[in-house]
């Protein structure tokens, strides 16, 4: 067979494939556009998708974009067929059983690609219809995401994926991307959270604005409205709400930059984390928590000069913040800087005499030498000299317990439901054979322990 003949046959095969492909696309388009497809339509739609897929792989960009859109809409076609049945028409929530977070995301990605393509091509086939339908199904998707991420379900990563999909459907609503990032953090999916935060940073999202509140006269509960005009309508015209108030929503830019930096720190990307924290501080210069994280980063690298310079800067900026000083104590204690840690804890107590955690941490600091004393005691033999040394170490151990008691008692007094403080105090009482105090505290500790197990 000569070369010309081979080329002719190849051209014929491509032509036949192209015609077949166009036929399949017409079938998909026809069924997709039916408001109430039949069960037979659903079967044909799925079969046509399967038949067309290998043909589209070598097709035009338009064929590939529209095929992926039709394929992603297969659950929609199934849903439309099912929801046309009388038993489902009064139950909108039944529509969700045709979807998973993953299939919603596939649909969102395909829809976003289609809208971008139609804008680029200048020929809008489905964009207008999609944008008109968005308000109808968006609330359902939001409720679905909330149900996935609530305290019972705790499907944080699925909730994040649905919220991200809502953002893809409607990029004029970047707040959903912000919440998607937060859910991804809750689900410990830091790679995805970082991707979402980077997107928020790229689009310059701040979340700054106003919240419009009014009290529902029937329930007495304060409710937030989508806009001032909507709130004022319910207050002045409908008259179902009273006591309107406006609340300024602060910018979330600092938080976004901060979370990017913290995720990079957790992932061990220290150079990137330093750059991110520097950028975060530039965008939120009054956030001392960022300075603490930066100090901690240099502390991990044992760069004590930079660490102490940042600590000094923190204290100059906010010397009377008890929580800040307490956090500096935690940093110092974790670095085995016991003298500095004690100084910070005592300063926190001076600034806030009711700071229960400062008393507890100070007690833990006082108890720190105990394990070392036990280790020394266990290494001793039974000679007279070693028995004498043992007694001296035992006396030191008892003094360690005694030094912690005032702080533990104060921590329990300030926060009676703190299991850690109460259990530690009980162990100290037992070690010192203070049975008169140990007995009533034991009952309290058992009660707190039972609560923890529920």
Report on this structure.
- This protein is mainly alpha-helical and 454 residues long.
- 74% of the residues lie in helices and 5% in strands.
- The protein has helices spanning 3-32, 39-56, 61-72, 74-83, 86-89, 101-121, 127-148, 156-169, 175-186, 190-202, 228-238, 253-266, 270-283, 288-300, 304-317, 322-334, 338-351, 356-367, 370-379, 384-414, 419-431, 435-453, and strands at residues 209-216, 222-225, 241-249.
- The protein has a 3-stranded antiparallel β-sheet with strand order 2-1-3, covered by helices on one side.
- A hairpin with a 5-residue loop joins strand 1 and strand 2 (222-225).
- The longest helix is centred in the C-terminal third of the chain and has 31 residues, at 384-414.
- It is elongated and about 100 Å long.
- Mean pLDDT is 87; it is low at 1-20.
What's the total number of strands?
A: 3
Main β-sheet, spatial strand arrangement: 2-1-3
Query: Which percent band covers the strand fraction?
Result: under 5%
H-E order: HHHHHHHHHHEEHEHHHHHHHHHHH
Number of helices, counting only DSSP H or I runs of 4 residues or more? 22
The best one-word shape is elongated
Q: Structural class given helices, strands, pairing?
A: mainly alpha
Q: Helical proportion?
A: over 70%
Largest sheet: 3 strands, antiparallel
Give the integer mean of the pLDDT values: 87
- Radius of gyration over C-alpha positions, nearest whole angstrom: 33 Å
Distance between the termini: 81 Å
Low-confidence runs: 1-20
Short description:
74% of the residues lie in helices and 5% in strands.
Write the layout of secondary structure elements.
Layout: H1 3-32, H2 39-56, H3 61-72, H4 74-83, H5 86-89, H6 101-121, H7 127-148, H8 156-169, H9 175-186, H10 190-202, E1 209-216, E2 222-225, H11 228-238, E3 241-249, H12 253-266, H13 270-283, H14 288-300, H15 304-317, H16 322-334, H17 338-351, H18 356-367, H19 370-379, H20 384-414, H21 419-431, H22 435-453
Antiparallel strand pairs: 1-2, 1-3
Helix pairs in contact: 1-2, 1-3, 2-3, 2-4, 3-6, 6-8, 7-8, 8-9, 9-10, 10-12, 12-13, 13-14, 14-15, 14-16, 16-17, 17-18, 18-20, 19-20, 20-21, 21-22
């Amino acid at each position: 067979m000569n070369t010309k003949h081979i080329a002719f046959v190849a051209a014929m095969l491509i032509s036949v494939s192209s015609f077949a492909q166009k036929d399949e696309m017409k079938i998909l388009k026809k069924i997709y556009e039916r408001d109430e497809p039949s069960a037979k339509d659903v079967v044909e739609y799925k079969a046509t998708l399967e038949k067309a897929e290998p043909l589209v792989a070598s097709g035009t960009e338009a064929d590939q974009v529209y095929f992926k859109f039709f394929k992603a809409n297969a659950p929609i076609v199934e849903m439309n067929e099912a929801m046309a049945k009388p038993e489902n028409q009064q139950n909108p929530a039944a529509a969700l059983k045709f979807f998973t977070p993953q299939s919603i995301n596939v649909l969102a990605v395909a829809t976003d690609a289609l809208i971008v393509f139609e804008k680029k091509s200048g020929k809008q086939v489905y964009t207008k219809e999609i944008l008109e339908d968005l308000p109808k199904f968006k609330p359902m998707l939001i409720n679905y995401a909330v149900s996935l991420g609530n305290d019972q379900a705790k499907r944080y990563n699925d909730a994040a994926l649905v919220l991200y999909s809502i953002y893809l459907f409607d990029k004029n609503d970047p707040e959903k991307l912000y919440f998607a990032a937060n859910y991804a953090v809750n689900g410990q999916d830091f790679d995805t959270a970082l991707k979402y935060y980077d997107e928020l940073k790229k689009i310059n999202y701040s979340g700054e604005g106003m919240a419009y509140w009014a009290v529902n006269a029937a329930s007495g509960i304060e409710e937030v409205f989508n806009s001032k005009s909507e709130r004022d309508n319910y207050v002045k015209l409908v008259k179902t709400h009273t006591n309107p108030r406006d609340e300024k929503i602060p910018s979330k830019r600092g938080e976004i930059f901060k979370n990017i930096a913290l995720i990079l720190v957790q992932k061990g990307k220290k150079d990137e984390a330093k750059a991110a924290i520097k950028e975060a501080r530039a965008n939120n210069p009054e956030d001392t928590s960022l300075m603490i994280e930066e100090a901690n980063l240099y502390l991990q690298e044992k760069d004590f000069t930079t660490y102490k310079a940042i600590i000094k800067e923190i204290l100059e900026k906010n010397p009377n913040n008890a929580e800040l000083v307490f956090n500096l104590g935690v940093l110092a204690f974790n670095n085995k800087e016991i003298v500095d840690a004690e100084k910070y804890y005592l300063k926190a107590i001076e600034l806030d005499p009711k700071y229960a955690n400062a008393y507890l941490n100070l007690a833990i600091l006082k108890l720190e030498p105990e394990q070392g004393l036990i280790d020394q005691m266990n290494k001793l033999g039974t000679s007279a000299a070693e028995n004498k040394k043992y007694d001296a170490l035992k006396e030191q151990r008892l003094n360690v317990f005694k030094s912690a008691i005032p702080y533990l008692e104060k921590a329990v007094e300030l926060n009676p439901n703190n299991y850690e403080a109460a259990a530690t105090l009980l162990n100290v009482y037992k070690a010192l054979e203070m049975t008169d105090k140990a007995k009533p505290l034991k009952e309290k500790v058992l009660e707190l322990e039972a609560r923890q197990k529920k």
